[in-house]
Amino acid sequence: MQENDKQLKAAQQREATSLSQLRNFACRGLPPADLLIPEAGLDHQQAGPPLPETLAQCIEELGSLQPAKEFTEALMLLRGLVKSLEKRMRKMDPIPEPDGEGQAWLENLSVALQAHATVGSQAETVAGLAQASLPVELQQEADGSLSHASFARDTLITLQRRFIHSRLAALSWPPSLSQLEASDASSASANGAGDPPAVSPTPIQFSSMTNGLKAHGQGFLQDLPSPNGPPRPSAGGMVPAWRGFDAPQDLKVSDELKKALLAFIGMQRCVQQASFEIAVTEENSQDGPMLWAVEALAEPIAGTYHLPFELARALRCSVQEVLRTSWLPRLAAMADANLWLHFAEKAVEFERNLAPLRGLPIPPGSAEGAAAQVWVHGGCMEVVSEEEQWAQGWLGAEAAEAVAQVEAAVDSPSAWSPAEQAWDPAVSGSATWGESKLEEAWESEFWPPCCADSLLQLLRELAGKACWLPEGPDRQQFAAAVPLEAMKAFRTKMQIIGRTADEFGDLAGPVWAPRVSACICAARYMVQSLREPSPLLLTLDEELPIPNGKRRGRSLLDGEASSFESASRRWCLRMAKAVAEKFADETARYRRRSHLDNFASTGPRPGGPSRELSGGLDWLAGCLSMLSQHLDSVAFREVWRSAAIALNRLLYNDVATEAHFSSEGAEQFAGDCQALQAAFRRWTPRPGAHFRELTEACALLSMEPAAAAQLVASLHSQPADERGSCPALTTLQVARLSRDQALCVLERRIDLLPLIPQPASR
Question: Which Pfam families did the record assign (predicted)?
Answer without folding.
Answer: RINT1_TIP1
